[in-house]
Structure formats: structure tokens, C-alpha cells
User: Which sequence fits this backbone?
């Protein structure tokens, strides 16, 4: 069935209900082995980064499959990698509904989900049964009920829970939808958090014989000075990479409503590419950067690549453009 028709039907439903239905359909297709799989390869061959081999440069961003319920079905759409989560140490319901909104004129989405998920253990249990066909990252966060001063404990717990299941781990301190979370981006809190995670990773790597890359997911709303300070910390501590960016609390265009939450989609693209460009300048040519935010066309992907992104991620673009977007971008 043409995706435009499927989207029209889905858009008749409340956004979160439509998303849940999509996940159920994909999970059912996965169980019944109905998806033969595109398994996209880049024309130039696989991309090697952080000691990993990516089938192509385009991945699915965290937030789409929070609980890892249909990873193989999503991989069959042609993604070079999938990022699940955000998962937290303990299950949590997230923020009250409604919490997901379409901005159709801007081809954008506003969300204030607040990390609803079944917990890291449930996601890892599903991944253990997955027919691993592409790279899979796991995005981790703190529980909403955990005080900010105890956030490091949550991130350490989550890292230990997901380590065996993850090809890489993304540290999410930049969501605007968990109260106080972005305070962890401040240098006084960021450095000790990353130092603790790096020390824990060293222990886990020694025990398992397997070193899992750690990446930091950044906000597009960081000031120039704060981004510079963050980049200096990443370089000094030798974090494996950065994901730029999360959603924004800004409303760059008149098409975006004042509904509170993080905005994603094309209005985010200038902010995300600016962040990627600044990071590339600060961190140099060899530092791995995953660019995400507003990519919904081949031209937007080229813009993100030109800004300095090694790999790309999409989410909102998939909602509005469908699987054909994945196949188009996998040619990069």
C-alpha cells in the first residue's frame, strides 16, 4: 500500500495511538517473518567508525522503538543502524497524556514524553532474542523520580544493565522533557558523570573482553560557550562520539505551535547542523559525530554531512516521508 495512504489513515488517529499501532504492526510482521528486508548498503560500501561497521550512514534515532519491540522489522527497512530507548533502570510511565503532537504544516512533531519505557531489563531481554543484522545502540537516561544529585547512580546502573546487549551506548542528558535533566550538561555536573561512566566501562570491558563505545547526546539549545566547554570535556576525557542533536525547546518558525515539549522535524535542521558544524570545528576531523534533527530529504542529509556528521539519524522524517526516505539516504 502506498505510504501516503497509510500516513493519511494513521494521521486520523491521535499521534501516540498511531505510533503504538505502528509498533504493534511491525512487531507482528517481525514475529511472522513477513519482512524480507532491504538491508541497505551504501554505494561506497560499509562505514567503519568507533570500531564498528555500519551497513550505511542512516540510522533510526532513539524514541521510535523505546522498548526494542520491533528492531528486526525496522532493520528490514534498510537502516544501517538502530538506536533503541531511551531506557531507564526502572520502568516508568512518562509524563501525562496527551504528550505527542503533530505540526503537519511544518512536517514536525512536538513531544513531552518523559522517557516512558518498560525498563532496561525488558529491552535487553528482547534484544537477546533478536536476529542481529545491523548495529544496535541503546540510549540510556535517569528515572524521573531520581533526584538530580543521584543521577549518576541511575546512569551507572543503566550502563551495567545494557552493556552486554549494546553495540554502543548513548548517554541522554539533553531531553527537555525530564525536569532538571539538562542541568547535567553543565560542566560541574557533566565531568563527574562522564568520568564515572568511563570508569565503569573500563571495568565492564575488562570483565567481558569487549569495549562498547560511549556517546553523549547533546542539546541544540546549548549556548556557544556551553557547547565549547562540552566539546573540551569530550575531547579531554576521550568520549567515543557525540550525537547532535536532541529536540529543541525553541520555536524557530510560525508553523510551530506553542505546545510545550521538544520540537523535531525540519524546523530543527538549522539548529542541529549549526551544532554539528561547531562540534566539528572544535573537535577536529577524527571525532565521530552522529547528526540528527530535521533530516527528511536527501538534500537535508547532504547538508548535515557537509556540516561534519559521519553518520545520520532520522525519526520525524520517517513519520512524514516513510520507508522510501531510508532507501534514498542509504545511498550516501
Assistant:
Amino acid at each position: 500500500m502506498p505510504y501516503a495512504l497509510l500516513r493519511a489513515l494513521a494521521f486520523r488517529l491521535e499521534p501516540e495511538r498511531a505510533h503504538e499501532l505502528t509498533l504493534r504492526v511491525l512487531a507482528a510482521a517481525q514475529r511472522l517473518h513477513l519482512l524480507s528486508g532491504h538491508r541497505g548498503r551504501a554505494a561506497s560500501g560499509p562505514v567503519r567508525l568507533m570500531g564498528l561497521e555500519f551497513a550505511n550512514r542512516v540510522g533510526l534515532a532513539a524514541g521510535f522503538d523505546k522498548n526494542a519491540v520491533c528492531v528486526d522489522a525496522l532493520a528490514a527497512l534498510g537502516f544501517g543502524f538502530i538506536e533503541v530507548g531511551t531506557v531507564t533502570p526502572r520502568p516508568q510511565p512518562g509524563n501525562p497524556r496527551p504528550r505527542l503532537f503533530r505540526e503537519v504544516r511544518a512536517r514536525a512533531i512536538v513531544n513531552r514524553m518523559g522517557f516512558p519505557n518498560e525498563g532496561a531489563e525488558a529491552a535487553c531481554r528482547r534484544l537477546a532474542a533478536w536476529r542481529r543484522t545491523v548495529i544496535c545502540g541503546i540510549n540510556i537516561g535517569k528515572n524521573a523520580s531520581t533526584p538530580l544529585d543521584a543521577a549518576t547512580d541511575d546512569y551507572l546502573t543503566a550502563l551495567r544493565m545494557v552493556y552486554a546487549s549494546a553495540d554502543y551506548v548513548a548517554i541522554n542528558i539533553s531531553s527537555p522533557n525530564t525536569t532538571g535533566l539538562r542541568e547535567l550538561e553543565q560542566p560541574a555536573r557533566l565531568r563527574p558523570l562522564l568520568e564515572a561512566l568511563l570508569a565503569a566501562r573500563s571495568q565492564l570491558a575488562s570483565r567481558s573482553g569487549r569495549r562498547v563505545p560511549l556517546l553523549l547526546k547533546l542539546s541544540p539549545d546549548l549556548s556557544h560557550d556551553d557547547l565549547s566547554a562540552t566539546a573540551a570535556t569530550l575531547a579531554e576525557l576521550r568520549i567515543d562520539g557525540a550525537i547532535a542533536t536532541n529536540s529543541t525547546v525553541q520555536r524557530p518558525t510560525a508553523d510551530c505551535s506553542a505546545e510545550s515539549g521538544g520540537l523535531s522535524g525540519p524546523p530543527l535542521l538549522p539548529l542541529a547542523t549549526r551544532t554539528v558544524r561547531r562540534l566539528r570545528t572544535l573537535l577536529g576531523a577524527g571525532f565521530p559525530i552522529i547528526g540528527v534533527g530535521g533530516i527528511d530529504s536527501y538534500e537535508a542529509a547532504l547538508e548535515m554531512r557537509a556540516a561534519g556528521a559521519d553518520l545520520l539519524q532520522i525519526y520525524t522524517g520517517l513519520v512524514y516521508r516513510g520507508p522510501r526516505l531510508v532507501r534514498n539516504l542509504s545511498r550516501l
In short: The first strand starts at residue 47 and ends at 49. The chain has a mean pLDDT of 94. The radius of gyration is 18 Å.
